[in-house]
Amino acid sequence: SENSLESLVSIGNICRSPIAEAVFRKLVTDEKLENKWRTDSAAVSDWNVGRFPDSRALSCLRNHGIETAHKARQITKEDFQTFDHILCMDESNLRDLNRKSNQVKDCKAKIELLGTYDPQKQLIIEDPYYGSEKDFETVYEQCLRCCKAFLEKYH
């Protein structure tokens, strides 16, 4: 559609979703499509509201030449009514989002796993919080593949 919108969501909004959001924003900027997309990320829970992304997420992005100023926020009822796509990282995100969306009148968002778009068929993007730098790198690679494929499909 002329004015597609997208939202990227994960549990705490400090590891996976800020990476996905920053990656997608860079892709649309590189393709000169930033006026066609509104990109954001939010958390299902309110644990980390107002916090900056995990320092390992920031350092992973920086290694790939990407900056982000995102601060964690919780998903709102309006998100379900205004975004075309809400993409999440794992099954528990998906369940929570579907449950929340059922309480929203005129939910317009299509709620899916971001991994649905992975050409390498890695459906779940695992939370790297308790892992190593390498796990953050894996999340970055997955997000990049998925976001590219998603953008190709909807651009």
UniProtKB/TrEMBL annotation:
One of its GO terms (cellular component) is cytoplasm. InterPro entries: LMW_PTPase, Ptyr_pPase, Ptyr_pPase_sf, Tyr_Pase_low_mol_wt_mml, Tyr_phospatase_low_mol_wt. SMART domains: LMWPc (SM00226). One of its GO terms (molecular function) is acid phosphatase activity. It is an enzyme of class 3 (hydrolase). Its EC number is 3.1.3.2, 3.1.3.48. It comes from the Eukaryota. The keyword Transcription does not apply. It catalyses: O-phospho-L-tyrosyl-[protein] + H2O = L-tyrosyl-[protein] + phosphate; a phosphate monoester + H2O = an alcohol + phosphate. SUPFAM superfamilies: Phosphotyrosine protein phosphatases I (SSF52788). Its main location: cytoplasm. The keyword Cytoplasm applies. The active site is at R16, D127 (proton donor). Keywords: Cytoplasm, Hydrolase, Protein phosphatase. Residues 9-153 form the Phosphotyrosine protein phosphatase I domain. It is found in: Cytoplasm. Belongs to the low molecular weight phosphotyrosine protein phosphatase family. Acts on tyrosine phosphorylated proteins, low-MW aryl phosphates and natural and synthetic acyl phosphates. This is Low molecular weight phosphotyrosine protein phosphatase. It comes from Nesospiza acunhae. The lineage of its organism: Eukaryota, Metazoa, Chordata, Craniata, Vertebrata.
